[in-house]
Amino acid sequence: MRRKGLASMAVQTVDTPRTPGTGEGHGPAVDLGPAAALSCRECGERFALGPIFACELCFGPLEVAYDLPAGDPEALRARIEAGPTSIWRYAPLLPVPADVAERPNLNPGWTKLVRADNLARELGVEPGKLHIKDDSGNPTHSFKDRVVAQALEAARAFGFTTLSCSSTGNLAGAVGAAAARAGFRSCVFIPHDLEQGKVVMAAVYGGELVGIEGTYDDVNRFCSELIGDPAGEGWGFVNVNLRPYYAEGSKTLAYEICEQLGWRLPDQLVIPIASGSQLTKIDKGLRELIELGLVEEKPYKIFGAQAEGCSPVSAAFKAGHDVVRPQKPDTIAKSLAIGNPADGPYVLDIARRTGGAVEDVNDEQVVAAIKLLARTEGIFAETAGGVTVGVTRKLIEAGLLDPTLTTVVLNTGDGLKTLDAVAPTTGPTATIRPSLDAFRAAGLAH
Amino acid sequence: MRRKGLASMAVQTVDTPRTPGTGEGHGPAVDLGPAAALSCRECGERFALGPIFACELCFGPLEVAYDLPAGDPEALRARIEAGPTSIWRYAPLLPVPADVAERPNLNPGWTKLVRADNLARELGVEPGKLHIKDDSGNPTHSFKDRVVAQALEAARAFGFTTLSCSSTGNLAGAVGAAAARAGFRSCVFIPHDLEQGKVVMAAVYGGELVGIEGTYDDVNRFCSELIGDPAGEGWGFVNVNLRPYYAEGSKTLAYEICEQLGWRLPDQLVIPIASGSQLTKIDKGLRELIELGLVEEKPYKIFGAQAEGCSPVSAAFKAGHDVVRPQKPDTIAKSLAIGNPADGPYVLDIARRTGGAVEDVNDEQVVAAIKLLARTEGIFAETAGGVTVGVTRKLIEAGLLDPTLTTVVLNTGDGLKTLDAVAPTTGPTATIRPSLDAFRAAGLAH
């Protein structure tokens, strides 16, 4: 795997990028702020900004390359701090036009970084060192609002009028809500047999919701067909033809964490792995902050977290492999259940390069970790949050994560969306008649 | 009903407040910031700060009276703007110690004020004039986090170690989460036959959760017994013996709305009515901002919103009555289903004094309004939000709410908690085989 490092993403000029067939005509007219081009993560070839996602030459995945603001870091920091309390405070570092905050969108981000001293005590971490980045505070209660907000701006720039995606949960709600507010049509594809709660959440924003008779894989294959067909013309699939822009939204997690730590890098991060894109983009965001002089450079370790029932990256890490062997997912952490994660190899590379690791926990440990976080910090996390907290515990016990260093653990979603995970083991302490005698008899008075 | 107006709550000194029996010894040692005393909302008698809620003389409800910061409004405004992005930016105006933001709590508030131009278009409101104050962004996704955060500080000040409440939903989660994070024991009482989802949300934070065999009224009666019994000693019931402090949390909605409008009063507010406490405290907050010179004084109208199936205040308003006749609730808007609202008479007084009104909508209109808000602004509201949006539409149609003036409509909770309200009428547009032919046949391609 060829990697161009910082040079491919930070302060640089564009050398006449190629205009690929599918993106033709978009090049000069597109205003996506500091986004200068798309570059291939494998061969480094550059393309004009457009709704494309794979390299013409080597089929590698494309990512956004920037002309980032050069100059005085203090001035940039002040400009960010004076900005809105949303991801748009970082607009100068994102593939969005400068006036993005004035356009109708959900204004996600600037979620809480919670100093988790109670949890730290339980895990044996030094007081003041453990933090939860709690993305359940986003508008539709998952980190997906961050990435969809970028895709929306790309969709506007490319003249799309419909936002689309395949999804089994969080993404469907994020796309439906963002499209509604922005005045876009939306058309979301889901497996036809999803739980009713998830269907309601996907449908309530009034867009088209199409149940596909088949598995999630069938849904994905159908969406790929649709992109190449006239029926899908004018459609922005946030996680397919808009993916290079979409993925950049995860950089904002890195920016917020560092700013909320007082413009400091954390020493260790624990990040969930679904496709692996979030982890790689957080690493990209951290390196940009260093490059721009917004934080002081120092080593940091990135740890990836998976559920045992879908742990292809963890398995490859432990086996010392560079490639990821696909798995058939079987875990309650459904938002992480991607058996063939596109960014798996990049995740392995980052975990190894930074001195981190990739670990997994079983479903029982996920449930226990959800409850632990709720009981200690009052944060009710999605199963993905149970995975990261559970993995954090395991890494500490294994001596891989240093409990004396500043550590940030991500919770990327909301427990309200995965009630089934804890319902069987969560209920009243007691059920009594409404009398003081019954209350005392139940041993509750003290 | 005797009312002391601004004099009872704003810049003033305390004239040796009475020390009631139950509050004895708390007086001078208690640091609750600018809170100076409790004063009776009926007879005006003053008492030292303590865990009491009814006047010794006339049994009227007590509320917090303040020594609010006198001096330069510009300086106070600057101090607030430099504060944390939570309700604690307003700590100088709340019954909490100055260092409140450093104490472990959920840091609620500073939720979004959403400019709702799409909704405005549908309702015939001028562009830029309609805003949704969306409190689903709070840590446990309802406005209850605001009030519980105040009660928590009062509980600390009075040496309580257990937080308690009776609840059928939002409050249970807010108390459980706040207690967990603050290191308090919690004991929450619910009717034993609540839906499983609500039970899980109340239980997941690990406090005691007690199902009571009886109705919500039985639960409440039991809690009143418990407060007077040694078994309940050291217990802070957030909405009973800590109610005067708890209720003040709703003032922060007024503060945030005005600051987010650029330190301007809105012309019209539409606020849901359960006990009516939220509406009366928002009015109190607006008057404080005027008194302190933080906003320019101008007339504003306050509108109350109820569900038809529990509309005692609306009925009294329409009948021209000063008293509220209790009703037996029967509505899907369960978080507003208080048949005998304690603050009903105060609400009537405020609606009439400000030139507002109280209106109600039926369950069908609530569901339609939830969907309207989701479809236009990407906000999935709780049934209470359906009530306020539905009432807004009705008030405009009746010519009572002026569509050319700045209007703020409250959404106090999250649609994820009341999925059942919309589930029967919300689902996929179509279910198809994964093929382009099936897609075209379903009429989805265009």
UniProtKB/TrEMBL annotation, chains A, B:
<keyword id="KW-0456">Lyase</keyword>
<feature type="domain" description="Tryptophan synthase beta chain-like PALP">
    <location>
        <begin position="108"/>
        <end position="413"/>
    </location>
</feature>
<comment type="similarity">
    <text>Belongs to the threonine synthase family.</text>
</comment>
<dbReference type="InterPro" id="IPR004450">
    <property type="entry name" value="Thr_synthase-like"/>
</dbReference>
<dbReference type="GO" id="GO:0004795">
    <property type="term" value="F:threonine synthase activity"/>
</dbReference>
<dbReference type="InterPro" id="IPR036052">
    <property type="entry name" value="TrpB-like_PALP_sf"/>
</dbReference>
<keyword id="KW-0663">Pyridoxal phosphate</keyword>
<dbReference type="InterPro" id="IPR050147">
    <property type="entry name" value="Ser/Thr_Dehydratase"/>
</dbReference>
<dbReference type="InterPro" id="IPR001926">
    <property type="entry name" value="TrpB-like_PALP"/>
</dbReference>
<protein>
    <recommendedName>
        <fullName>Threonine synthase</fullName>
        <ecNumber>4.2.3.1</ecNumber>
    </recommendedName>
</protein>
<feature type="region of interest" description="Disordered">
    <location>
        <begin position="1"/>
        <end position="26"/>
    </location>
</feature>
<dbReference type="Pfam" id="PF00291">
    <property type="entry name" value="PALP"/>
</dbReference>
